[in-house]
Amino acid sequence: MKKFHAKSGNKVLALVLTAAMVLGLAGCGSTEMPAGSADDATVEGTSEAGAAGEAASGEKIVNIGVTDSLGSINPFVIDQTFINKYAVDLEFLPLVDFAEDLSFEYLLADSITTEDNKNFIVHINEDAVWSDGTPITSDDVTYSFLRLASPLVANATLVYGVFEGVDSETGFVEEGATEVSGVTAVDEKTVQFTTKEPMSMITFMSSYAAYFHTMPKSVIENIAEGELTTSDWFNHPDVVSGPYMVTDYDTNHYISYVANENYWKGAPKIGKMNFKILDASQVYSSLQSGEIDVTSHTMTNIPQEDNDSIDALENVDVVYGSPVTNQSVFIQTKNIPDARVRQALVYAIDRQKIVDDLLKGHGEVIDGFVSSASPYFDDSITPISYDPEKAKELLAEAGWDGSQTLRFFVNSGDGTFVNAAQVMAAQWAQVGIKVEVQTVDLATLMSMAGGTDYDLFAVQYTYPPIDPSVDIAWLLGGEDSWTGYSNSAIDDALAQVGSTDDTASLKDLYSIIDKQTQEDVPMFSAYVISAQGAVNKRLTNVHANVYGLFNNIQEWDIVE
Length: 560
Fold this sequence. Notes:
single chain; alpha+beta; disordered N terminus
């Protein structure tokens, strides 16, 4: 399940970030505001003896069931999938993260303020210490930034070109840099981030602070800059800021953690934590047996045909999240340049029937990016209806002869959408569009994004309900974007998004974007999911929701 918050140094993003972004936060900003092959036995606690609760030793163990493969647990190669983000977050706290009510919750930081929307003052919690007992300081923050922005690390999803002293085009500092004007220490616990142009507090928090991982300078300064992406230390770190540290992992099967007993927010009550990577078809039986204890709205694809069965389980509590997870289908417009053909692709499929039949009604059909979970949702935009005759008309106008076979790539870990894609392909065939559905794992799918070796590809994408602008700018960012598409009306609306704090005005601007997207169809929403999450009733203090699940993980406990 892909849950992005993508960032890029493309020109459209530059438009977004160069606008005067106030959004109600002129003067001192605050975060209190609204914000998008190993055997089972190799994982401690997932064997029959330790599955659901306590191992023979009495140590408490919790297993979180996820259905995505893991890209890495190294912060320097993070790819922005939620499984990757959270796997790292548990060890190296971000400055903030989203809370379940879409406000921001402080994690490593305890305040972030700005008086001019260019200089952001980040204060690290005075109590924050590394697991070895040494204080977490501004030097750790500034050094981590320098190495995350290193050209030898070259992480394209962590482009920092908006900050002073960082190359605007590449998003990198110079190799071996020892300082940068955009991120400086004010004192031992205070760091100033300085942007080149005004930026809203919401954008700073959601696009940067929530994805910035501070690492111990005392460790990483001893690792050669060119070896940071491959260093074995990150496979079993012994100095962390978060509640857990990795002891072992397999990218396709599990991540095993042990509690950081010196966690500065309090020692976790659960001694061992595992992410167990399952096939989606195994989720129901694993919940039923107690082999897994928790599923995540953002990391666990639960087949919709299993929803009712999971609802009926006596050993779990079920929570359906708000509709924020968009099953987005991106069209490479270089390969399908005629908007009439792209429109026909949408007219030819019965999206509401897919929601009713495959999602059991737990979702909605929209056009564009903004779902009903957002305050900017425009319910006057009527989604393109199922009209195969209209699709045929458009294809005829475009001179479509039906000889071309479109390549449609989908995530093999998302069983529900694999089925939906087959339904869609059959409906496309009925209007004369041949589509070959190809299933690949998530890592492979992401490696293809932005290229031209696909005509369509689909992935679950959570557009932050409060600030989807950065994601939209990236996805509709022209030649190197996932769609190869750009539009001046959308660019202009995105540039204005950051210049108003008025909800009605923002709603109008996002409406422009969604209407233009509906007309040109560089992407479309197959559906937006109200995802199902589940928590074993033996667990306490687990706040199952789309956001904020792990923010209080040190308080989770098992009560038999």
